[in-house]
Amino acid sequence: MDDLSRRKLLALGAVGGAVVAAGSANAATFGNPDQPAEGAINSTPGALSNPGPQNTALEAQLPSFQNPPATDVGSMPMMWSSFNIMPKRIQAGGWARQITATEFPASTAVSGVNMRLGPNGVREMHWHLAGEWALMTNGRCRVTMLDQQGRAYVQDVGAGDLWFFPAGCPHSLQGLGPEGAEFLLVFDDAFQSEYNTLLLTDWIAHTPPDILARNFGVPADVFKNIPLHDLWIFQGKEPPALAVDQAAVASGGTPPEPFTFSLTATKPVKENASGRVQLADSRNFKVSKTIAAAIETIKPGGLRQMHWHPNADEWQYWIKGQGRMTVFNTGPRAQTIDFRPGDLGVVPKSQGHYIENTGDEEVQMLVVFKAPEYQEVDLSDWLTHAPPELVAQHLNIDPAVLARFPKGQLGIQPG
Length: 415
Description:
This protein is an alpha+beta fold. Helix content is 18%, strand content 33%. The chain has helices at residues 3-25, 45-48, 56-61, 63-66, 200-205, 209-216, 242-248, 379-383, 388-395, 399-402; strands spanning 80-82, 89-91, 94-99, 111-117, 121-127, 132-146, 152-158, 161-165, 171-175, 181-187, 198-199, 233-235, 260-262, 270-272, 275-280, 292-298, 303-308, 314-320, 323-329, 333-339, 343-347, 352-357, 363-369, 377-378, 412-413.
């Protein structure tokens, strides 16, 4: 072999070796698909240490931020917030704290208020520029409202019950003894705030006395003792029996559909030994035409299956238990977040996600959609309703194994 041929062979060998080395360096690993390698599993104790300033109490609440799975990739908007970090506005009759798109920019569809009314505490008569949907979480509450045709509605609600008041419909709320009431309000406007509510006392105080007299057909001095500042939440008197209040407003007629609904009393739309999903949307709670919602309960070790919602963002309110959610988006991007009671989460429309119960008690969370109906696409349901050979070519999985994937929208998988 001449020198030229020998040099060509050595060069080709070097190139081949480089290709093999490059292939090894870029080889994906199951459970760790990205390069450079992500996750603590690919690091060292020295590199993982955090000797700088720390808020250990806050870090302990969000462990997946401190040690994300190796499959997380890329940057995503912050999809976590919490009522626990929001200031309360407190008055004699109760308190409230809120999260709008100002405090939680990822929440672009709805805003939320967590409110407490003590026994006989009254949220003064008012109305909103947005629709108000609510879930009772504790105690009992009397709701009153007037619909667009002048028909009044008065009802008592308890834990697990809902109400919906369309935008512009005036209403009031009162906590009933002995517990009072606590509830979540959801507005179908991301910027709706407790501070931009139309209050009865504000309008009366800011209307000239002669106009009030002409409007109501009484002397102007009837209004001489009106409050000059709004009441917002005040300590009220014990209301009469429900039937008495209902009879007092009956002259205008009764709305054809109720403005309250018992969500936790409904038959689950998905249920098995690992959990259940209970649904309220315009198909069963007919007046709620802008908000659909579900209560999801996941038993310890359970998994809310991989899915997405094609018609609206998912806004979450975590009621009890602790869990971990991973959200998947284009890019690819994937982020894992931990949740506890009082926390909020957002999953943008059509982004894939799943939720694990990471504690030793049930997870219960409310999921809310600014849409008239609940819609869901389940990943396993899709794969089991596509041609098996097609799916097998995508995933390198035997069609006989694919046949064992769960069919239908089961919702919750056991651990």
